[in-house]
Each structure stands twice: as C-alpha cells, then as structure tokens.
Design a protein that fits this description.
By secondary structure, the chain is α/β, with parallel strands linked by helices. Helix content is 44%, strand content 21%.
Length: 235
C-alpha cells in the first residue's frame, strides 16, 4: 500500500542542524564531522565572533574573566575570551539559527556553557562527554586534555565537581608538539580513559595521543557527533 506520508528519512532530509562555534566561521572540520554523522541533514556553522572587527575582538579579549575560553579566528590565530562575554553572542546566534529553521543546535564548547533562551533543543557537549566518560570509567579516574594551559585549572575544577578524579593537561589541536607532550604526560597517569576535550581534535589527534600514552583515547568531537546522530534519528 502506498502512502503520501514522508518517511522518517525524508523528514530528516528536511532538518537543519545549527552549530555555533565560539570563534569565527567557517569551521570546515566541524561541519564535516556533523555531515559525516548525519549526512542527510543540512549543517549550518556560525561563529559567535562573526562580523566583529579586530578591535572589537581585542577589546573582548582584554576583559577580565574567571572562565577563559580559547577561540579560533578565521585567520587561524586564537584569542582567549571570557565565557560571560561570549554567552550573549551565542544566545543571539541560537535564536537566529532557530528562525532559519534549525531544529537542533549544538554549541561547540565542551565547557559548562550557561543556558541559552531558545525554543529548539540545544545540545550541550559537556553533558554528552560527562555521561560517556562515566560509562567508560567505573573508577571515575579520567584524563582530560584541555586545549590551552589557561583552561586547565577551570577544567580540573569542573570535572572534580562532577564527581570525577581527573588528571588534566593541555594540548592545542593545532600544535603537534603539545599533543606529543601531553600524550607522554598521560602515560603514567592512573586513569581509565583519556578525552581530548576540544572539538578541534580529530581522529588523527586521538590516534597519535593513544600511541604516546598507551591508553584508550576518545575525542569530544566524536562523542558529540554520535549524540547528534542519535538525537536526529528521533525526529
């Protein structure tokens, strides 16, 4: 019997996934990660700092903060900007993506990003990563690799508050020497699993890190992409 009702696959083909990076877009590796996870879904990546000039960004980076976040600019350089200054920019973008028909939004930040007012679901990578590592480490002993040294203290405090016994180091996904150093540092750590806690780390980073430390290594990017796929399959 034929039916005029669209299949679930057809319905997913009409969905738009909004991804908000805390720096500037484009972010082709992020877009590709989510396209690979849900190939029939449109992916729109926007950056919280899109449209801001160099002076405006420099002014944000100079503001005092207790929650520093490393963000990437379109020229490949990075800045450290406080979470509290990025939040209103992200919230505005979330609403714009919703108005552009996004049915699920991912904030590309593995820290505890403050809630955003938005009428569509917002996937928080921090929740996904906590749940996954809790399942992988019955002893709650986890290795966490922050993207920059300035975030290491905040990252350690966050995971400790969530009931884990974290060992924290740092490595930028764009600095191979840091990945090698951090992998070596984790070799002697008493942890069950290591997570590269930045969405910039890809499978190549994970494989290199695993060779260095000899432990199970996962990336936040892969965990979040899998969660997006599962969420979209229910829609």
């Amino acid at each position: 019997m034929s039916s005029d009702r669209p299949s679930r696959a057809d319905a997913r083909a009409q969905l738009t996934l909004g991804v908000i990076t805390l720096g500037q877009s484009p972010h082709p590796e992020l877009e590709q990660a989510f396209v690979d996870a849900a190939s029939t879904v449109r992916v729109r990546v926007r950056g919280a700092l899109d449209g801001l000039g160099p002076q405006e960004i420099a002014d944000l980076a100079r503001r005092r903060t207790d929650a520093p976040v490393l963000v990437r600019l379109v020229d490949g350089s990075t800045r450290t900007i406080g979470m509290e200054w990025l939040h209103p920019l992200v919230e505005r973008l979330a609403r714009e993506l919703m108005e552009a028909d996004a049915r699920l939004i991912v904030i590309a930040c593995t820290g505890d990003f403050p809630p955003c007012r938005c009428e569509v679901p917002i996937l928080q990578p921090s929740v996904v990563c906590r749940n996954e590592l809790a399942a992988r480490s019955p002893r709650a002993r986890v290795g966490i690799v922050a993207p920059v040294e300035a975030e290491a203290r905040v990252t350690a405090a966050r995971w400790l508050a969530d009931g884990f016994l974290p060992v924290v180091t740092w490595a930028s996904p764009r600095r191979h020497v840091e990945v090698m150093r951090a992998g070596q540092a984790m070799r002697d750590a008493d942890v069950d699993v290591v997570m590269l806690d930045d969405l910039g780390h890809d499978v190549g980073s994970a494989e290199e890190f695993a060779r260095r430390c000899g432990k199970t290594v996962v990336t936040a990017r892969a965990l979040v992409a899998r969660a997006v796929q599962a969420e979209l399959l229910t829609r």
